[in-house]
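Backbone Fold Data
Goal — fold tokens
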Amino acid sequence: MKMIRAVIRPEREEAVLSTLEAAGFPAVTKMDVLGRGKQKGIQVGSAVYDELAKTLLMLVVEDAKLPAAVAAIRSGAVTGNPGDGKLVISPVDEVYTIRTGQTGL
């Protein structure tokens, strides 16, 4: 299993969630976060914004379904401009359902 953390533009959240659901990935955790990438924020006139609003989506998927999940996130998130976001993928050793104690997805 893999955990995907997707840092995306807040205005692309609905599009990403829709593409994930259509691809068979309805379970997502969402957080509003602040951050910056390589561009170190943005400058508008004399004002510098070094922390930008982003949305962090987290989901765990089976290894075989990882390419489909990544493709769904990318297709919903891409604008073609700098700051579209990042995907971070990590291994997941175990998953437990709290209510039942069941393991796995």
About this structure: DSSP finds two helices and six strands in the chain. Residues 19 and 72 are 5 Å apart (CA to CA).
